[in-house]
Amino acid sequence: MEVRPTKLAIIGAGAVGTAVAYASLIRGVARTIALMDINTAKVTAEVLDMSHGLEFVPRADIIGDDDVSVCADADVVVFTAGAKQKPGQSRLELAEATIGLTKKIMPGVLEVAPNAVYIMVTNPVDIVTYAALKYSGLPNNQLFGSGTVLDSSRLRFLIAQHCDVAVQNVHAYIVGEHGDSEIPLWSSASIGGVPLLHWKPLGDGQAIDAAARERIHHEVVHAAYKIIEGKGATNYAIGLAATRIVEAVLNNEHRVLPVSTVATGYEGLDDVCLSLPTIVDRGGAQTRLEMPMSDDELSGLMHSAETLRAMQAKFGL
User: Fold this and answer.
1) CA angle in degrees (0–180, nearest 5) for 186-190-196
2) Domains in the chain: ranges and CATH
3) In the record, what terms sit under GO molecular function (predicted)?
């Protein structure tokens, strides 16, 4: 039986949107990749540039337009469009503008791709995801945010670097807000099955004591600021992270990823979008895992929820 070709649509042809498209082409994520952006010249140029490299990647087509019809019948829609920051504009004002843009664009995309799984990547991702759920009326599994998938990858990289092991053997999660109040779950982190808190240095590795954990946490929280200061935006890692989420959906992987959803059924968390390890498959964001947490971690998660709840209130959500 012939498998139906898959289609990935990406809203926004900026640094993040094009990174998602490029990573998805290289990894052979979908048979068709569609870019949509209101800047016709930009989206046309980006599609042409990537098309010239199609010989070197798994078989795919890449298309683009300034009209939402290019997203028609998409299986997954990755939403990266956001308002551009104006001189003197605060982050709060920028967030408000991005939420407004999401509200404006979403109905048209829903009309042409009503059955797609929607992945929100635009910052502040938790607030934008919560707003998009309200405006779209989609169920919690069908629309969710990229959350702390990137933050968790940053955490694993730093642990691997500190302990001198391969990052693929590190299992650790950041939960809560994708932002300053996010929480690393040290108590459940492990390296090759060894609990991180019991890890003993090997070779050139170092002890991962309280001071090391504090430093790593600080670096994860401030990673984006450092990158933005140096090059203006973060795009490669979030492009790979978003692509990994898309793969989990299209390949029905039942992969555990810390995506941002409304944590229905969790006391104190059921009215905000935040990240918890969640099973992601063809139906989107499914069951959230009940992670063991220390008292400090649980307290931090609740504080993160309060931070997000206060932000939602500012936007009338």
Assistant:
1) 60
2) 7-145 (3.40.50.720), 149-314 (3.90.110.10)
3) L-lactate dehydrogenase (NAD+) activity
